[in-house]
Amino acid sequence: MSSKSVTGICESCGQERQLIKAHIYPEWAYRALYPDGRVNNDAPLLLVSGSESRTRRSRIGIYDDQILCQSCDELIGRLYDGPAKRYLLETPLQVFKEMPEGSVYVLPGADPQVLKNFFLSLVWRASISQREEYGHVDSANPHQNMLKRIVVNNLATAQDSFGVFITRFRSKTIKDASLKYSQVPYPTELNESLYWILNLPNGYKAFASPLNNSNLGDLLPFALKQGSPVFVLEWEDFETSNEVEMLTKHLKRMRDQKRLG
Ligand SMILES: [Zn+2]
């Protein structure tokens, strides 16, 4: 691997700096996909792409060497990536309430503002990345500058501003797969409003609105907010999810092309 670094304008501080290999999703999100949570050089991760007809191998996932300088990348790592890893990978959920849709859990001890801004930072990092894997994450969002200010300064926002709520897959038959799954952000529509879906290991699936006035509807009480518990909605079965449908479709297409080729 080449060790040369690029000089350019850092997207965070705006200064001309040496830019480093910055992960969009933190490195731990890839590491956690390995069977025992440790990088295995002999059996690297399999990357499946909707736009490519082949799979690729990758040790530690996707990074971009043209977006952030070292000190800004480290700051984001300290502010968000470190705590988010503790919350999402190392903190057991506690049952909060059973509902007809499924269970509502809380993440004890998690800082809602840090976690909210972690998810927003993933949207922001994806939007500034020139990597083709993130090309679909719209950097022309009218609230892009505000999104950046929130992330860079760890600002508090109202529950319905850049709203984020967290869900987690249930799974009976392919539980291991549901826990070892991640995906680049993909858009969805909820209450006629755009949300980015952020799939992270351990079955987590967050919905993040890139808008100042998010329309959360009935989900508003569960959105992340300073001073409120961090709720996790376990309402969706992995087996029947969009994620499995997309993955199955891509794998089938690749298998068909392999057969034809
Ligand atoms: Zn910087």
In short:
The strands form 4 sheets. A 7-stranded mixed beta sheet has the order 7-8-13-9-12-11-10. Helix 2 crosses helix 3 and helix 3 (112-128) packs across helix 4.
**Biggest sheet details:** 7 strands, mixed
Stretches where pLDDT is under 50 for at least 5 consecutive residues are none
Strand content: 15-25%
- Tell me, rounded to a whole number, the average pLDDT: 91
Using the alpha-carbon principal axes, give the shape. globular
Description:
- The structure is a single chain.
- With 261 residues, the chain is α+β, with helices and mostly antiparallel strands.
- The chain has one domain.
- It has six helices and 13 strands.
- A hairpin with a 3-residue loop joins strand 11 and strand 12.
Secondary structure layout plus pairing:
Elements: E1 6-9, E2 16-19, E3 22-23, H1 27-31, E4 45-47, E5 56-58, E6 63-64, H2 70-90, E7 94-99, E8 102-106, H3 112-128, H4 144-153, E9 164-170, H5 175-179, E10 183-190, E11 193-200, E12 204-208, E13 231-237, H6 242-260
Parallel strand pairs: 9-13
Antiparallel strand pairs: 1-2, 3-6, 4-5, 7-8, 8-13, 9-12, 10-11, 11-12
Which features does this protein show?
binds zinc ion, alpha+beta, 7-stranded mixed β-sheet, 13 strands, two-stranded antiparallel ribbon, globular, 261 residues
